Prior knowledge:
The structure holds two protein chains of two kinds.
Chain A: E1 2-13, E2 16-29, E3 35-38, H1 45-53, E4 60-65, H2 85-95, H3 102-113, H4 128-140, E5 146-150, H5 158-171, E6 176-180, H6 184-190, E7 193-198, E8 201-205, H7 208-220
Parallel strand pairs in A: 3-6, 3-7, 5-6
Antiparallel strand pairs in A: 1-2, 1-4, 7-8
Helix pairs in contact in A: 2-3, 3-4
Chain B: H1 30-51, H2 56-78, E1 82-83, E2 86-87, H3 88-110, H4 112-115, H5 127-155, H6 165-192, H7 195-210, H8 222-228, H9 232-244, H10 256-276, H11 278-282
Helix pairs in contact in B: 1-5, 2-3, 3-5, 3-6, 3-9, 5-6, 6-9, 6-10, 9-10
Amino acid sequence: MIELRDVHKRYRTTHGAGRWVLKGITLDIPAQRSVGLLGANGEGKSTLLRLIGGIDTPTKGKVVRHCRTSWPLGLAGGLQSALTGRQNATFVCRIHGQEADIPEKLAFIADFAEIGAAFDEPIKTYSSGMQARLKFAMSMAFDFEVYLVDELTSVGDAAFRKKARAAFNQLADRSSVIMVSHGESTLREFCESGIWLRDGHAHWFDKLDDALAHYKESIHT
Amino acid sequence: MFPAPCERPRRRPLTPSSLPRPPSASPRSALQVSLSVWRALFMREALSRVSSQRFGWVWLLLQPVVHIALLMLLFSTLRQRTLAGADFALFLALGLLGYQLFTNTAQRSASALAANRGLLAYRQVLPVDTVLVRAVVEGSLQLLVGLALLSGAALFRFDVLPHDPLLALEAYLLLWLFGSGLGLALSVGYALVPEIEKIMGFVFMPLYFASGVLFSPAAMPARLQEWLLYNPIVHGLELGRAAFFPGYHLVQGLSAGYLASFGLAFWLLGLALHRRFAIQVAAQ
């Protein structure tokens, strides 16, 4: 379960504090429940995902993770461009305390990413698609209980997207996802419930369809 | 209009505790996480420091050697070979190594955050981790460079063994402490006020001349000595030399405690700044 307690967030801008992006969100996101985050651009979907992932801190309130949560997949960053794919993967294994399983994990990542000899080349020589493959493969190497996903399925070519979907579906019995996406079909495929963000407030819906209906109605009015 | 949406789930599904968990689910302690992050960052930093350029190791060693050789060439034509009871080549080498230990540690750890920003995408990695690890990497690297340089000099029959090894250890350790403390504090400064980085560029340049790398403060006029002794680096460099040369002529008022208090004060300030501005530093 992930607890959000009165989470407020605003960013610092060059001229003082910015507007409130999130204005007091209190939610329990149950484990084993895949959730889609809905909302128009700039409503704070990615911000909320970053807060859940613990790579940003709420201005007010708190976030408590009771389960092993992945880093937000699909966001920029997470790779060091001067190092090779293998070295980056090793780094991620180490910070997750999987020192003993490194050879095994590296073999898995190299195999899953399907980037061939490029695995031993510096990241700066990678295309954005190759980076996405590597990052996705790295996240699949650890058994997280909750995967945080930001528009992930829009990257990579068709073949890799298919593979990513298959991998996610396989995970579905022991893991869940919290997903930001504008693709309705993607959301329907992976998520049961929905959170609709509007004006800095979050609205929870047990059924994704209800969340989608409210979201769509809000953009048409 | 649509009905008012509810804020909470209407029906609570299975609680996580009722579900079987894989054996690895026991969360690591904060210390375990920090230790594994430091280890991972250390490997990463060391690797990129020596492998980002071709012949990374060679450049690391060549830089001080060429620097010393040029200075030797310049000074041997200008003045005598010994100075204040010390061999001049070794005198320069010790000064330069100590000075490099300080500035490289300070400057590289201050810029650690900018270089590792991408890695903050993992919540295990905190900004302060990148700075601390870089200070240790740079310190170890400078130690290796120093050992390599002195071993090289020993081949040319220089007397490179310190007669007071403990004092040598103390002097260089304190220089590192000051450098890393300054780096810690500056790293927050660079992140919050980028202009500080430009200003520090102006500060580091004259520091080289005001730290007694090229001269012995003992050979300076008394009034200048007084001013020089305000600079904590002078204390470190002179004590380091005194540890190597038995009859080295020291100025009055050198104190390891003076340098140590600068080091500790900056560490305290740096850690406090990282704590106080944690959110602002991690953002961007």
